[in-house]
Amino acid sequence: MKKIFVFFAAALLLFACKAEDPVLDDTSADVTVLKSDVLFDALGGTGSITVEDLSEGRLTAFSSSDWCKVSVNGNTVTVTADQNVSLDGRSARISLYANGKSSYVIAQQTGMEYSFLDGDFLAEMEGGVFDVAGISTFPVEPSTEYDWIKFVETDGGYKLTVSPNDSGNTRTGTFVVKCGDIVTTYTIRQKFDRVFSGNYTLDYYTSSSKATHKTLDVVFERDADDPDQYYICGVSPSGHKIPIKYDPSTDLLVIPNCAYLGPYSEGVWEYTIVNYATLDFKSNYVSYSLLEAYYIYFTFRYEAGKYTLDLYNSAPMFNKSRVSTGVSIYKFSAEEGVTLSSANKVGSVIGLIFPTFTQQ
User: In the chain, N or C terminus with fewer CB closer than 10 Å?
Assistant: First the structure.
């Protein structure tokens, strides 16, 4: 019975040992490696390991990594490396066993070469051309979802062509280069220079009841020093220009309240004055406040290369029960720098109620 138990225990021990990890005796020595060719680039390929001639016994070999596969024929181990689509290099331990001896060789593989880097381009409104430089060990997939960005392959990467921007707004698009799990994104931002200068037709009413509709041909002139500052010419019979400024932060155009325009006659001067009404339009008001909340604001639309400016209801900025109705030019017996009030108001020059400017 004791002999049967010892035999059974030995059998269990032998079964528990993995096939790729033979049990060696205490007298084991290294398997002599005569030649080793197991350095691979990212493309992978086949190499070999040659060990000493084995007069008896059998050589076995095992790899520690799945990307590195081995097969044995006599005293030669053939090593096959898969492609490495990672930027990182890697290594695998190849264990060799024969005649109670062991040894190992480290197989190494470089990462793929990929030099495309995330980037940003700023294109002018007129469009432009940009070079995307980069190389890759493996084929890449270039793409863009934006029809205003075109690309062609070059020897050193890609050439991007950005079309002129006629969208009416600044815009942002992307060009993507993908290789396996690696994604590189190039962001293209294109300017849109809002140029409101030009000839316009001004449609307006003379009262909030919209009883009388009128039109005027006016001109928007751009300031030579401030590209966001414009002047409306052709409204005042005195020839004075009404300042109107584009605010990029709000995407609105603004006529300031109580803006000094110039002299009307001896001892009389012209100013812009904001008009607003109650929600039912039964009562109308003017304001002499210099606070920006009392300014007159305009939204705009850009269609077929032309702008249309519409009155924006900014009255709730200072009184939620009020409605913006427009802007007027008033005469005051007050020089520039003097506070305006009902006491120094002389009369109205022109009132622009619910004005709309349409570029011609």
Answer: N
